[in-house]
Amino acid sequence: MCAEHSHDHRTVPSPRSRNWQGKWPKTPGRLLGTSLIRLYQLTLSGFIGNNCRHIPTCSEYGYEAIARHGLVAGSWLTLKRVARCGPGGTCGIDNVPEKL
To answer: Which of 9, 41, 76, 90 is 20 to 30 Å from 97 at the Cα level?
Structure first.
């Protein structure tokens, strides 16, 4: 398992939401992508378990990546992140880049 890491000082989710609370344009692609991730969080996430090796979790990362960078770029960032979760992958704090 990963060693403890210091607290990140970026925008953190409010206690009522686990997803990124920053401002983002509500375009159709972004709304579709974030809605699909939220649906996953509410349905399948509980069956898979809370075994994420990164902070934020992959679904939280995906939500923020799509909200910040749009459906295509955010999905690509999320796919790369999920690939890093496999055996021999990374762990620890892995934030969404502010700029591509």
So the answer is: 41
Amino acid occupying residue 27 = T
CA separation for the pair 37, 28 (Å, rounded): 14
Give CA–CA dist 62/34, Å, rounded: 8
Residue 54 in 3-state DSSP? strand
Kind of pairing between the strands at 92-93 and 54-55: parallel
pLDDT tens, the chain, 100 aa long: 565 444 444 554 445 667 888 899 999 999 999 999 999 999 998 887 777 888 899 999 999 999 999 999 999 999 999 988 877 888 899 999 999 8
